Design the sequence.
């Protein structure tokens, strides 16, 4: 169950659409729920489905389609590396390999201290700054050389 504050935020999103289209707020509702809970479990998806009067499978489909939604617990910091073409050509795969080795985890895994989760993404629309890494879905970082990655990780200590 979400908090009263979360439902109030979801209501603000619902109000942006005609009353017959409250399901249009589903992405925002998932974002709000994930911010509060850390990740989206089945109960939370069901809760959003009930609130937006949608079939739970439809909410689940949205949550599984976009990489910014987490369907499993994640670390305090999520590091999402783009490995699509532009980033791959500019060192995205090497950046991912560097992080895998440094953190001793693979894609979809979390460090044993619960601090970092490493994720892979499709193009984030910032190809000019390839290779690109996204921290906690909010901070987009470009030109991720090993040195730049080390600097970022230090900032997150
Ligand atoms: S290919 Fe990585 S941001 Fe576009």
Sequence:
């Amino acid at each position: 169950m979400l908090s009263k504050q979360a439902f109030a935020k979801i209501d603000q999103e619902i109000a942006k659409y005609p009353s017959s289209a409250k399901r249009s707020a589903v992405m925002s509702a998932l974002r709000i729920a994930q911010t509060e809970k850390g990740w989206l479990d089945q109960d939370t998806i069901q809760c959003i489905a009930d609130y937006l009067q949608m079939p739970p499978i439809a909410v689940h489909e949205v949550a599984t389609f976009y990489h910014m939604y987490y369907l499993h617990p994640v670390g305090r910091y999520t590091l999402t590396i783009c490995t699509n073409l532009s980033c791959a050509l500019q060192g995205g795969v090497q950046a991912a390999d560097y992080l895998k080795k440094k953190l001793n985890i693979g894609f979809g895994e979390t460090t044993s201290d619960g601090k970092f989760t490493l994720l892979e993404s499709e193009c984030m629309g910032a190809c000019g700054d390839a290779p690109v890494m996204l921290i906690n879905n909010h901070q987009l970082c470009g030109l991720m050389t090993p040195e730049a990655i080390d600097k970022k990780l230090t900032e997150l200590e």
